[in-house]
DNA sequence: CGGAACATGTAAAGTGTTACATGATTCA
DNA sequence: TGAATCATGTAACACTTTACATGTTCCG
């Protein structure tokens, strides 16, 4: 879906509590955020520039090592306002869900098609791996109750992802056996 | 994600069992297919044209009423081959999941933020409505066992969507109360 | 000292949405 | 006869990915 530039709010949200470089943000997309939003560095860097120009974020140059100039961004008052407006706005759209596996499944009409178990098995393997990774992340991030309370939303979405994967695997197994 | 033109396979898949016009296909996206893939008519018509040029589908002109020319497409042998190659190919990518609600949730750090129950309630309502629609569709399409066996993949994905919504609602309720 | 990771950008091509455009048919 | 739906298309814009491009730092 071509959104109303949701990426900008992701960047603002990530900068809400800490200063980050474009590279740090790119890393965030590869981990937690990647669970429900994706973006490459080729989108991130230009968007940070735009947000900077619109004064929603500001930056300071940090020298790493001998001469490497890191641009470390932080949110401005204006940016914080913009973020909050988005946060309190309704979210009437259901998630965008494009699922190539379900698409293929849809086109298998025969209950006894020999490809069905192969397809299911592949997905079971994929989702088991994913579940393991998610659980590992939860254990590292939220082993103690305190982190959970200070990053409640993060805990919630990770918890959701884990339950989703568990249910998905159960469903796949149910139709596989 | 910029896919490797998955849309073409959706069109081929839909044309596998019956001849359809671009408009028919557009309608299919608004119903069943829309659950796991989306496309507008502005993508569909040009893609049908391309598939026709590549001889993966063919068309016949049908006059509706007095002079309305409908283009009714059907799959060719070549198209069927292409579809089958796609169907048996691995599906190593997990689904694309962009979820604005989870994104917002992620940025709510305080467990007692007053916005949390409002956000959850909105989602509960949305997903309950969706669940109702899905169940209605299942009841209409698969009330009898026969349809289920002749359109097994379709039944599977609808069943999955229903279970997914039920679990989602349970999860939302669990954190709402 | 070499490879992996850090760090930042732009360009080109592909995908997707919204808007523009037009006309026919059906049904009340 | 007018409104909703059927029916087909293009244009402009927005978003996303992949490729191109370059240089630094860290660590073994």
UniProtKB/TrEMBL annotation, chains A, B:
A family per Pfam: PadR
> What are the residue boundaries of the Transcription regulator PadR N-terminal domain, all occurrences included?
11-84
Top-level taxon of origin: Bacteria
Q: Which residues form the signal peptide?
A: none
Question: For the Transcription regulator PadR C-terminal domain, which residue ranges apply?
Answer: 98-174
Q: Which PANTHER family match?
A: NEGATIVE TRANSCRIPTION REGULATOR PADR (PTHR43252:SF6), TRANSCRIPTIONAL REGULATOR YQJI (PTHR43252)
Name of this protein: PadR family transcriptional regulator
Natural source organism? Mammaliicoccus vitulinus
């Amino acid at each position: 879906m071509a959104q109303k530039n949701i990426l900008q709010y992701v960047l603002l949200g990530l900068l809400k509590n800490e200063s980050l470089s474009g590279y740090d943000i790119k890393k965030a997309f590869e981990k937690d955020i990647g669970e429900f939003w994706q973006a490459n560095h080729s989108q991130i860097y230009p968007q940070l520039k735009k947000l900077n120009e619109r004064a929603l974020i500001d930056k300071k140059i940090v020298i790493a090592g001998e001469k490497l100039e890191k641009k470390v961004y932080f949110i401005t008052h204006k940016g914080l306002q913009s973020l909050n407006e988005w946060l309190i706005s309704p979210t009437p759209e259901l998630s965008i869900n494009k699922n190539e596996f379900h698409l293929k499944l849809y086109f298998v009409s025969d209950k006894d098609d020999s490809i069905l178990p192969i397809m299911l098995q592949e997905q079971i393997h994929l989702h088991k791996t994913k579940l393991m990774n998610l659980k590992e992340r939860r254990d590292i991030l939220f082993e103690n109750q305190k982190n959970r309370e200070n990053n409640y939303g993060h805990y919630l979405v990770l918890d959701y992802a884990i339950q989703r994967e568990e249910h998905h695997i159960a469903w796949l197994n149910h139709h596989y056996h």
